[in-house]
Write a structure and sequence with these properties.
alpha+beta, about 20% strand, globular
Length: about 325
């Protein structure tokens, strides 16, 4: 059985709910711009972004930790999961469907694919594919965001008020401190472009990832555990309309969260005025020219995958 046939068979149960008629006054989401860039030419891009008339989202697949690929598509299991989530969300996120239900159904489907591809062989918990996501969607004429993991949302209302959030609050600071210790141990990027390739660092990252999607860690993700749908971080959003928003993987959000080049409001304004490609160029210049050794800005990779989606919400 080919992997593509396995995916189709494993996911045959996914139902797409037709949109309901909604009032003409319901807010609308319009995608303005998007960009996605691999952090290294030697690795697949494990991010994705997408949307439809009622939602916009970004997905960040977690790079594998040295294990063998299970599914064997898109260059890595993380890349496969991100692409699979993108296409699934664009079909499944429809008026009348709860986000928790969608995540439960998606993760159950992904689990079927993974376990069929593994041919009943045991899989180390740290080698299971996982991904973060953040979505903005319209639910019953209200604007809501849901997420798992460390993707970011920056939203600026017509009155200039800023809304920023992530499902993992404080993730940027925790990663910075962890990277600082890992860099000191590994001897910098001169030896390892990705610190997860250093054996001791990799073992610690494997230990942490093995605990994902369990009450022990409190970190829930897209992947193979349907229970994650019951642990979404959800918030009602009430920006003055029209509003402009930016959904980012943590690799792109580093411009504000790690490198402190912009405030959230400034980052959204720069994206709107100058375009996402200009911001991506600046991001890569910081990482590869200004601080290629991670001394000024400690991080686990010289450059992470970076994805952003710029959108507006209008009445």
């Amino acid at each position: 059985m080919t992997n593509s046939i396995a995916v189709a068979r494993a996911c045959g149960h996914i139902a797409v709910t037709a949109p309901r008629d909604t009032a003409s006054t319901m807010p609308n989401i319009r995608i303005i711009d998007s960009i996605s860039d691999a952090g290294s030419a030697s690795r697949p891009n494990e991010d994705a972004a997408g949307g439809n008339a009622t939602c916009a989202f970004v997905i960040d697949g977690a790079t594998g930790l040295g294990g063998k690929s299970i599914v064997g598509l898109h260059g890595s299991d993380a890349a496969w999961l991100a692409q699979f989530a993108q296409s699934s969300f664009e079909q499944m996120v429809r008026p009348g469907r709860e986000m928790a239900e969608i995540v439960q159904e998606f993760n159950a489907c992904a689990a079927n694919v993974v376990h069929e591809a593994a041919h009943a062989l045991p899989i180390e918990p740290w080698n299971l594919p996982v991904a973060s996501f953040q979505i903005v969607r319209i639910e019953d004429e209200e604007l809501v965001t849901h997420g798992l993991g460390d993707c970011r949302l920056f939203l600026i209302g017509a009155d200039g008020k800023v809304i920023e959030t992530s499902a993992l609050k404080g993730a940027a600071q925790a990663e910075r401190e962890g990277a600082r210790l890992a860099l000191a141990h590994a001897g910098g990027f001169s030896a390892y472009q990705a610190l997860a390739d250093e054996p001791t660092v990799r073992d610690e990252l494997r230990r942490r990832r093995a605990a994902y999607n369990s009450p022990a860690s409190g970190v829930w993700t897209l992947g193979v555990e349907p229970e994650a749908g019951n642990h979404l971080a959800s918030e009602m959003l009430n920006p003055a309309l029209p509003a402009t928003g930016l959904l980012c993987s943590d690799g792109f959000a580093a411009l504000a969260d790690q490198y402190l080049r912009y405030s959230p409001q400034e980052l959204v304004a720069a994206a709107r005025e100058n375009g996402l490609s200009t911001l991506l160029d600046e991001l890569r210049r910081i990482e590869r020219v200004e601080d290629p050794d991670g001394v000024k800005y400690p991080r686990f990779k010289m450059s992470d995958d970076a994805t952003a989606l710029l959108f507006e919400i209008i009445e």
